[in-house]
Amino acid sequence: MVLELAKPRPIWQIMFSTHHTDIGLLYLISSLAFLFLGGSLALAIRIELFLPNVEGAGQIIADSMTFNRIFTVHGTTLIFLFIIPFASAVGNYFVPIMVRYKDMAYPKLNAIAFWMIPPAAALVWLGFADFTWYAQPPYSIISAPGPAADMWIFGLKILGVSSVLGAINFVVTILKCKHPDMSIGQVPLLAWSFLATSVIIIVAIPTFAAALLMLLTDRLGISGFFNPAMGGDPIAYSHLFWFTFHPEVYVLVIPAIGMMYEIIPRFSRKPIYSYNSGVFAFVMLSLVAFSSWAHHMFATGMSFTEKTVFMVGTLAAVPASAMHVFNFIATMWNGRIKFATPMMWAVGGIALFFAAGAGGVVNSAMPLDFSTHDSYWVVGHFHLFVMGTIAFGSIGYLYYMFPYVTGRMYNETAGKIHFFLSFVGTILVFFTQHVLGLYGMPRRVYDYPPIPEWIAMNQIASVGAMIIGISMAIFLVNMIYSSAKGKLADIHDPFGLGGKYYYPFEAKNPHH
Amino acid sequence: MSGHSNWPEWIYVAVVIALMAWVGAEAWEAERLIEHVPADAEVIKVTGQQWFWTFEHEDGTKEIGELHVEVGKAYKFEIMSKDVIHSFNIHDYVVLLDAVPGRVNVVWFAPDAVGEHDIQCREYCGLIHYNMRGTLYVEEPST
Ligand code: HEM
Ligand SMILES: [Cu+2]
Ligand SMILES: [Cu+2]
Hints:
CATH class of the largest domain in chain B: Mainly Beta
Largest sheet of chain A: none
CATH topology of the largest domain in chain B: Immunoglobulin-like
Distance between the termini of chain B: 74 Å
Shape of chain B: elongated
Strand content of chain B: 35-45%
Low-confidence stretches of chain B: none
Mean pLDDT of chain B: 93
Shape of chain A: globular
CATH superfamily of the largest domain in chain B: Cupredoxins -  blue copper proteins
CATH class of chain A: Mainly Alpha
Oligomer: heterodimer
Bound molecules: protoporphyrin IX containing FE, copper (II) ion
């Protein structure tokens, strides 16, 4: 692997590089920056909701418009500027090496895809729109204030193009550039996860790209696609949006599962239980990803038949997800497990994945969804995935790749404390939010009536969020300090697992 | 698969599929029963707009932010919106349906006990979404 920080280089050399590990480093640093920025917004939300504002008490956010802008930018940031770029960082570092090629297939395109992110991020952050991460018309057309809304639309448009360019690059790198001696059945599961994800992106994103354009012209008053006052249909937008974004949730989760497939066997010191079943489950997931989008729309007034079809389509995705869990557990079974920091994050992430999936089944069963839909239950549900599964897998992988990127080791104790606090915090916030939803609290509210159960559960969730906040501060210090001053890593076996289980991809890709 | 037999995984997958089939069948059956609106249900027209609910009874009386109904009767809500999408919600009775401009969505319920329940909006609709609330009063029949 390439030691990025061990040999210091001027920053502009990295910024203008097209080498895959340099692009990977750029993705890595920017995605982590957005993890902290987006996370701070979450803390602001949780502090605000700690108490209901009876007579102005317990209020840190001045008004509801500011609050609405904060949760909108929070969600947009963590999905599009943390999770997806973080996966691109890992893919850029590892996919070319795993398929034994010197770089990504199109290095310049790769750099362009990355450099689309900063302007898009600037549009989202400087605009600070308020129409939630799904910009639902007609609110987003007739009611959401500009220019924030328009800036968000342009920002997302750019991010969509960037994702598609990145996806094309991964598909070509994996399918066309892999070493001639290597069959597709030998490509490691992490690289498979990028193949599956990239195919989903290429099929799914154009739909949303079209919807965004229509939304923009609707806002300009030129068209009325989604505006009932002009004969349009807002529910058409929901279909276009969720046709992209239900598959997109698999775009988020599949790379994280791929990362766990790297961590679990190594730290269990056993080969993966079934490579074929991992590949099969990835392929299945990318197919069934497209059969369930309207489960987000059970309450829009769909017919009984439509609801049934999308419920069945949703439940069909469960066996494939469950196969991954089985594969992980079977791999760990009878293994000589070493619970170093990356392994703890991966195992914690799998446990939360299971819990989150169980909650997802409840959402899918249509009569139950009328209890949970648009309540805090849904917030708890998808955060168990995005935080509990995806961020956990990603952070575990970050610890795992840390010695390769920096040539140094992070502080193991701090890494474990980070895990432990985050795990407890995640359970406190998001399990509680499930229950809060069952008590009927709607999501996206700046304030709530002083119902005793709601207050109690909001407080538990806010305390949990503070615990996660503290753990993330420890994480930040550990990363910065260790990359400069950490003890030098033994690159052949940084985690002391015994070389046989260690990194099978020794090849380095020299800068060219 | 990769040299060893994989029957535990197949059994596991079969169990998961069976479980999902069971959940799906139960949900289908329950939803089918729930959606069957009784023929004698009284119509209440519900209109959402930024940021309050208006109710119109069959006899033409209107209420804003409050809804009075009688215990033991069935009611059919015809839900619409004047501006953006809202979601009409009486959580205690699992009544939840979006108010979509340009459409009329229908859901019914039959209150079974005298009491007061919260009415709220469950779909983000802007500035005062958090306080787009009302109260349902279930009362003894007047006659
Ligand atoms: C695999 C990782 C998953 C991720 C990342 C994920 C993410 C999400 C997100 C982001 C939402 C809410 C969107 C919003 O309203 O803002 C959501 C809702 C939903 N999810 Fe998942 N989900 C995952 C898996 C599942 C699974 C396995 C199921 C079902 C078996 C499921 C069923 C649902 C349903 C039915 C809803 C709609 C709930 C509602 O709005 O009432 N999800 N999910
Ligand atoms: Cu979905
Ligand atoms: Cu609302």
